[in-house]
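User: Just a sanity check before I run the rest of the batch. Below are the structure tokens for the first item. I only need the designed sequence back.
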């Protein structure tokens, strides 16, 4: 390749080229376009770049370059119009001092280049920019109004994830070319300009999320007729939703108002968002009933209105208004009534979350959510039998019916090819024996049948569940969600071949939508009791957690020794039953277990000493049984206190014996004075140790508090998140008290 001296364009993006190829590029003196982005290049930027003085477009982005790179080394590149130097890992330090491009830049990308301070000085002398990306740096200052004035043809401005602050000031004149603006993850504050929609009429993509904006959405926003994506999430906006937005911005495909303080009616009866595909309104204060304004959005794919104060019944028309709907989340509201059968019509629905509402009545047997992968109906007042159709689905991954009042038995008609991984039925009134058919669920990772009325014995066939024997990751073949690298490839995928703004925007317009889609998948939260408390797992963490919870039932008989074959299980809770017999020695094969609770049963015999081989065991509870003998004192068992063994009168715990042995007086009267003196010294040392412990604990506590205060004082973004979390906790407690305490 390097012998092709007349070569003027080289595109090697997304390959696995290394440094040897780069060093020989010095011979290609006529090269005009060089794109070696998205490879595995590392080390310092090659000095040979300074020899390629004919370059017009240079893309070295998304590699692993490191070290210092002064832009002054490009001083002889008089034809350079496009420069992209962004890195993957913030390892490149670009110096902008003493560099004034001899040509007018059109495309400039310096993402993750460790720029700090104010804007680079050379930008003051640029007048033909069409694309500028300074994202993921450490830049400070106000919004660059001067940049829009100096570059009237600027089409894309990306300032994401810096430390910019101040209010958003726009030029007085209308900007006819800017169609992509991303200033998210900064510290901008104040209200949006009242004439924003007039100045930026051509905007197609606007992301100002994760800032400190407040107030209402300007009425002029309705003038942005071409706006396709609007993301205002994670700010302090308040008031009602402007009618001009839902009627004037008819090109909107993604609208994100989540994590703000919006209030009032959820949607009016008239909307003109016919192209809307993604709608995120979660974590606000919208109230009232769900009106049929959404009926015009027939292409809606994602609807998330969770954690608001919506009331009334779930409208039946929601099953008909969009055949493309894939994600429907209405959790944490005040919705009443039953689950409408019309949801059967949503043939592409993957996620249905109506948890933590006031739904009641039985689930209709005709409800056939054949396409749903994650179904969450927990913490309602649903009753009756669990429809067998749910267990016959081959696509269902999560079935969460916790904390309702379902009764009867678990259906026996279970699909042998089921993909069910999370079966959460705890906190109901289910009864009868645990069906052996559950053992057919080979991908089952977490099963919670606690706090019911199940009787009979524990099925030995649980040992056949593949995920509990070899691990959930192995069964799923390591399937993962979209990776950040994939998003980066989508973001910059078109720059190498076609630098036109329309093509670039065509690739970017759905970037946030893809990120939101991945975020929705990660927000499929699985709550499971681990280590004596409920933990919430989502995203990739879910693939690593396995557990079985049969606590608080009426199970009898012995614990099957086959349970010891569940070598990949992390949590096993059999407490609060009437199990008898001894603890199986096969439990020593539970190599990965972290939490084992078999308290409040009728177990007898000794604690098998083989259990000391459980190196990851951090919670062990056998209290209130009829165990006898000596407790193990090696490995992890040396860390367990008396609470793990109490309620077993015949059990001789080594730590209890050790604790009281020193208080017993010797049986002989020939104890030497030296021995008595040694015991007194030990007691003194013990007292000193306790004083030191208390002092160090107090000092550490004060230090942590001071560090936390300092961080919140310095970083306004974290301070905002802190107070937002406190406010959300207060609202959650108030809602819980009003729903479960005051209403009774």
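Assistant: Here's the designed sequence for the first item:
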């Amino acid at each position: 390749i390097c012998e092709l001296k007349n070569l003027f364009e080289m595109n090697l993006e997304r390959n696995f080229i290394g440094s040897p190829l780069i060093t020989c590029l010095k011979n290609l003196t006529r090269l005009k376009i060089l794109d070696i982005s998205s490879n595995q290049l590392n080390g310092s930027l090659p000095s040979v770049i300074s020899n390629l003085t004919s370059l017009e477009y240079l893309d070295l982005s998304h590699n692993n370059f490191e070290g210092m790179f002064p832009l002054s080394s490009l001083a002889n590149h008089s034809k350079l119009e496009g420069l992209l130097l962004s890195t993957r890992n913030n390892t490149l330090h670009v110096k902008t001092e003493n560099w004034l491009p001899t040509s007018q830049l059109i495309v400039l990308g310096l993402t993750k280049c460790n720029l700090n301070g104010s804007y680079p000085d050379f930008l003051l002398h640029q007048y033909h920019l069409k694309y500028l990306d300074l994202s993921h740096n450490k830049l400070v200052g106000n919004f660059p109004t001067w940049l829009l004035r100096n570059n009237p043809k600027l089409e894309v401005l990306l300032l994401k994830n810096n430390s910019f602050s101040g209010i958003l000031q726009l030029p007085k004149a209308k900007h006819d070319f800017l169609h992509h603006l991303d200033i998210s993850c900064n510290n901008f504050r104040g209200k949006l300009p009242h004439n924003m929609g007039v100045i930026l009429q051509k905007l197609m993509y606007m992301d100002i999320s994760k800032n400190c904006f407040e107030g209402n959405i300007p009425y002029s926003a309705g003038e942005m007729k071409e706006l396709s994506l609007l993301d205002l999430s994670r700010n302090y906006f308040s008031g009602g939703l402007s009618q001009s937005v839902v009627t004037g911005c008819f090109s909107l495909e993604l609208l994100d108002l989540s994590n703000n303080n919006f209030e009032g009616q959820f949607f009016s009866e008239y909307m003109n968002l016919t192209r809307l595909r993604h709608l995120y309104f979660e974590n606000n204060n919208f109230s009232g009933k769900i009106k049929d304004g959404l009926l015009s959005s027939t292409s809606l794919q994602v609807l998330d209105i969770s954690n608001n104060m919506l009331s009334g019944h779930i409208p039946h028309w929601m099953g008909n208004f969009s055949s493309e709907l894939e994600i429907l989340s209405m959790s944490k509201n005040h919705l009443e009534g039953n689950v409408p059968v019309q949801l059967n019509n949503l043939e592409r629905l993957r996620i249905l979350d109506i948890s933590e509402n006031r739904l009641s009545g039985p689930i209709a047997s005709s409800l056939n959510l054949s396409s749903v992968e994650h179904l969450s109906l927990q913490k309602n007042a649903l009753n009756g039998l669990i429809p067998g159709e749910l267990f016959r689905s081959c696509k269902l991954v999560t079935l969460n019916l916790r904390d309702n009042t379902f009764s009867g038995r678990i259906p026996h008609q279970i699909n042998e090819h089921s993909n069910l991984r999370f079966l959460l039925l705890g906190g109901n009134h289910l009864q009868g024996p645990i069906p052996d058919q559950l053992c057919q669920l080979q991908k089952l990772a977490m099963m919670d049948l606690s706090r019911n009325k199940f009787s009979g014995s524990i099925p030995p066939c649980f040992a056949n569940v593949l995920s509990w024997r070899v691990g959930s990751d192995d069964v799923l073949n390591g399937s993962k969600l979209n990776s950040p690298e994939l998003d980066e490839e989508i973001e910059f995928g078109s720059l190498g071949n076609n630098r036109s703004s329309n093509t670039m925007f065509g690739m970017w317009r759905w970037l946030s939508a893809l990120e939101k889609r991945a975020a929705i998948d990660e927000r499929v939260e699985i709550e499971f009791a681990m280590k004596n408390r409920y933990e919430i797992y989502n995203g990739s963490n879910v693939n690593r957690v396995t557990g079985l919870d049969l606590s608080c039932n009426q199970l009898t008989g012995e614990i099957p020794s086959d349970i010891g074959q569940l070598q990949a299980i992390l949590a096993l809770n059999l407490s609060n039953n009437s199990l008898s017999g001894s603890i199986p020695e096969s439990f020593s094969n539970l190599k990965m277990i972290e939490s084992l609770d078999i308290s409040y049963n009728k177990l007898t015999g000794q604690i098998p000493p083989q259990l000391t081989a459980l190196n990851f065991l951090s919670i062990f509870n056998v209290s209130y049984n009829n165990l006898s003998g000596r407790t193990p004192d090696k490995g992890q068992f040396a860390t367990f206190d008396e609470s793990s063994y109490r309620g077993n009168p015949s059990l001789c715990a080594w730590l209890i014996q050790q604790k009281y042995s020193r208080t017993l007086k010797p049986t002989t009267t020939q104890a030497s004075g030296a021995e008595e003196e040694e015991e007194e010294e030990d007691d003194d040392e013990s007292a000193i140790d306790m004083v030191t412990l208390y002092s160090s604990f107090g000092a550490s506590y004060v230090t942590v508090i001071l560090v936390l205060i300092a961080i919140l004082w310095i970083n306004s973004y974290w301070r905002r998140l802190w107070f937002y979390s406190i406010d959300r906790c207060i609202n959650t407690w108030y809602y819980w008290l009003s729903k479960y305490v005051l209403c009774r």
